[in-house]
Amino acid sequence: LAANNHYKMKNVKIDLASGEYDVQVGEGLLEQVGSTLQALGFRQKAVIITNPWLRGLYGSRLKANLEEVGLETVLLEVPDGEEEKSLVRAGLLYDRLAEVQAERLSPILALGGGVIGDLGGFVAATYMRGLPLIQLPTTLLAMVDSSIGGKVAVNHGRLKNNIGAFYQPRRVMADVAVLRSLPVFEYENGLAECIKYGVIMDAGLFDLMERRLGEIKSGSVEVVEEVIFRCASIKAAVVEKDERDLGLRNILNFGHTAGHGLESVSDFKLSHGRAVALGMMTACKIAEKMGVFPHQGSARVQALISAAGLPVTLPSGITPEQVIAAMQHDKKKAENRLRFVLPRKIGEVFVQPEVDGILVREALEEQIG
Ligand SMILES: NC(=O)c1ccc[n+]([C@@H]2O[C@H](COP(=O)([O-])OP(=O)(O)OC[C@H]3O[C@@H](n4cnc5c(N)ncnc54)[C@H](O)[C@@H]3O)[C@@H](O)[C@H]2O)c1
Ligand SMILES: [Zn+2]
């Protein structure tokens, strides 16, 4: 981790009916977790949940940081991988929490990407009816998306995220320094969500990403921090208006209608970020065909996605028919209609509850590589 001497930090406040909390974004924040827990008044045994790889990179130092301020700390490991987001793994964690005698006010620290955040969050939400949760996101996706907003879940059967809760963390601390060890492939997946935020709500963020993509890709702290801060602010604002996902939160699904279909057709071999990148292009093309979004807008989105290292054409072997069939099975659609979030201009979207299947097919056909 970077030394703290040039420590800067940005802060987003989320104000919800269920309470308020801060999302901090900055370099070196992991060194501040111990003092932060102290300031928040935690005295009981702290529990870090992470995976073996992240334990080696950051977990052991984090544990030492908590112990330096006198907090007794245990670290629990979960093997890496989406398949660990399960009730079986949650059950094993409950056993471990009982063994180490976690108490009602023991903070659970989820140190990892969205998998650890969702699983650790689910366990925190349910063990003893809820232990305080601190999100320590380590992927770009987790920093801008999954750690914020209080959705925690595990997968069950063939369905993703179908057992879960709304459970807000007490604090989110996104230490941008940890992104240096994140594989480029994962970083690019996170960039897809950042582009999404620009298109749905922040033309200035989209401009910034266009102008400074080189620096963003090379990990320039100042601009990466700014991008994460702006994305986190948008997610916070949307969640504040619609904590329980009954309306506005829908716009966060821009790119996700076709994206989910693509993920499922590929048997999840296509990563979420890449599927969302393709799905954003499908939505742009549909909006263009409907005459509500200029071609030049689509072209800018396509150029940025492509420059970010993300695909703009369907993987070989995947057909528009397959994607449409998969979309019709997605839990997020109502009856037979295909609901899309469509752009009006960069920085503004709207929900179209019923999109003509012919337009969807045409849009996907244009994405055949
Ligand atoms: N709760 C929500 O609102 C929400 C929103 C979006 C996604 N999600 C969930 O998030 C999950 C995906 O999260 P993800 O993309 O972060 O994947 P992930 O958690 O699987 O992390 C990706 C990989 O990067 C590794 N890694 C993480 N941080 C690292 C670092 N700093 N250095 C080196 N390696 C690192 C991990 O070990 C893993 O192998 C999915 O399960 C998805 O359902 C939840
Ligand atoms: Zn997503």
Give descriptors for this structure.
369 residues, alpha/beta, seven-stranded mixed sheet, 13 helices, 11 strands, globular, disordered N terminus, binds nicotinamide-adenine-dinucleotide, binds zinc ion
Can you describe what's shown?
The chain has 369 residues and is α/β, with parallel strands linked by helices. The chain has helices at residues 33-39, 52-68, 87-99, 114-126, 140-146, 184-201, 203-218, 221-241, 256-265, 272-289, 295-307, 320-329, 357-365, and strands spanning 9-16, 19-26, 46-50, 73-77, 108-112, 133-137, 151-156, 159-166, 171-175, 340-345, 348-352. It has a 7-stranded mixed beta sheet with strand order 1-2-9-6-5-3-4, sandwiched between helices. Strand 5 (108-112), helix 4 and strand 6 form a beta-alpha-beta unit. Helix 1 crosses helix 2 (52-68). The structure holds nicotinamide-adenine-dinucleotide and zinc ion. Zinc ion binds next to helix 10.
Poorly predicted spans: 1-5
Largest sheet: 7 strands, mixed
Strand content: 15-25%
Structural class by SSE content:
alpha/beta
Element-by-element helix/strand order? EEHEHEHEHEHEEEHHHHHHHEEH
Mean pLDDT: 95
Bound small-molecule species: nicotinamide-adenine-dinucleotide, zinc ion
Order of strands in the sheet with the most strands?
1-2-9-6-5-3-4
Shape by Cα distribution: globular
Terminal CA distance: 41 Å
Overall radius of gyration = 20 Å
Assign a percent range to the helix content.
Answer: 40-55%
